[in-house]
Amino acid sequence: MPTPRTGKSQLAKLAHAHKPTPRQQTPRKEDYIEIIYELIREKGYAKPVDIAKYLHVTPPTVTGMLSKLSEEQLLVHEKYGGITLTDKGNSMADAIGKRHTLLVSFLKLLGAKEETAQKDTEGLEHYIDTQTLDQLSKLVEYASKNPQWWNQFQKQTPP
């Protein structure tokens, strides 16, 4: 049955929400770039065995994905050598990192604990629209600059 406001049924809304949107990268590719970036940042290098460990996949799975990411010019992987991100890969990693940080900040603002915010962000970060992210960014920034407003809001909402 259509709703008065939109004229669309709930089923039509769900069908629209599930319609695939064109994406530059798949969530899995983004996970690889994110892990590789963090490994390089924290350890100074990224190796397939480390990637496998953090993504909970087998080393042959990592090798296959590294080949795909190399073909897309997101990284350079020398056989039996290190992995480095290209400028394109670093740019992608930077965007992923900003999106991740924003979503964690937003969830923590809502009262989520760090561990929960990190876990929930992994489920959200690959699917959220950029316009929604822009709005969340504005809200997080406003709340951090206006703590009295946020405190008042929290008093209005039961835990």
State the gist of this model.
This protein has 159 residues and is mainly α. Helix content is 67%, strand content 4%.
Share of residues in helices = 55-70%
Oligomer: single chain
Reported by name, the CATH topology of the largest domain is Diphtheria Toxin Repressor, domain 2
Unreliable stretches covering 5 or more consecutive residues: none
So what's the CATH class of the largest domain? Mainly Alpha
Please give the number of β-strands: 2
Task: Give the N-to-C terminal Cα separation.
Answer: 34 Å
Shape: globular
Give the helix/strand class: mainly alpha
Biggest sheet details: 2 strands, antiparallel
- Average pLDDT taken over every residue: 87
The named CATH superfamily of the largest domain: Iron dependent repressor, metal binding and dimerisation domain
Strand order of the largest sheet: 1-2
CATH architecture of the largest domain: Orthogonal Bundle
What is the number of helical segments per DSSP (H or I, 4+ residues)? 8
- Estimated radius of gyration: 20 Å
- The tally of structural domains comes to 2
Secondary-structure element order, as H and E?
A: HHHHEEHHHH
Beta content comes to under 5%
